[in-house]
Amino acid sequence: MFDSPPTYVDAHLADYFLHEMIASFSEAAAHSLQKAVKAKISYQTQRRQQTASSVDPRLSVDEAMAGQSVGPLQPDIDEAHRMRMDAAGYKVGWALAERITKDKPRFPRANQQSTTVTLPDPLELIKFVCKDVWMAMYNKQADNLRTNHKGIYVIQDHSYRPFLRISVPVGYEKELDKACRRIVAFPLAVIRGALTNLGLHCVVSVEIALPQCTFQIRTLAPAVSTLPTTTASTVAGTSQITR
Fold it and tell me: Across the strands, what pairs with 232?
């Protein structure tokens, strides 16, 4: 009897959760940056009070800060939000890869003639993302997978589920692009976290053409150990270690 693939989270619930997470991370990023800016201005004001260079030492910190802009810049908020989404997605991808693969056989190994370390075949790992990871997250498989067999892989989802519930009024196309960029920050990190857990280091980028979403994965060369090689040789009856 055919066993349906396991579903860890209801797909619609994941969509709602993603939007709530975006809003929560945005508020947290803005609040954190605002506290940092206020603390910096407060410190600078106290220093000026101590040196009595440009601020009357009789003024309080709040009076000295009056009229100064204490709000963080929007690019800083966007970057802080992206970092939070990236960290969350990476952890989810890492854990998801462990959960899905724990009862699966090992991935086929790549044919590598120049190294003694055998790594999983990158193509098999990308297929795992297209099938198993996509099924666990969106209750469907990715629509298309392409590769140039030189370390570049392209995953296409013609009707990316999180994009199906997003819309803005006419004339707010820039806001739509910004919202989409915030959404894809999470799956970008999920893909990277899952592949890193399986031994494939990569850089993931995205192209958006609503409702299609295209993820490009560029694999990185495996890290080569920089530890010095140690050999033992016998010289005049003594054991000598050379590095």
Answer: 241
Closest by CA to 93, choosing from 167, 159, 190, 173, is 190
Strands 202-209 and 212-219: antiparallel
Q: Which residue has the tokens 């939007």?
A: 19
- What's the predicted TM-score (pTM) here? 0.73
Cα distance between residue 157 and residue 145, in whole Å: 9
Contact 189, 217 (CB under 8 A): no
Tens of each residue's pLDDT in the chain, 243 residues? 445 555 555 656 777 788 788 888 888 888 888 888 888 888 877 777 777 544 454 545 455 445 455 556 778 888 888 999 999 999 999 999 999 998 888 888 766 554 555 678 899 999 999 999 999 888 899 999 999 989 999 999 999 988 887 877 777 778 888 889 989 999 999 999 999 999 999 999 999 998 899 999 999 876 544 434 333 333 333 333 333
Which two tokens mark 19? 């939007």
Q: ω into residue 72 within 30 of 0, thus cis? A: no
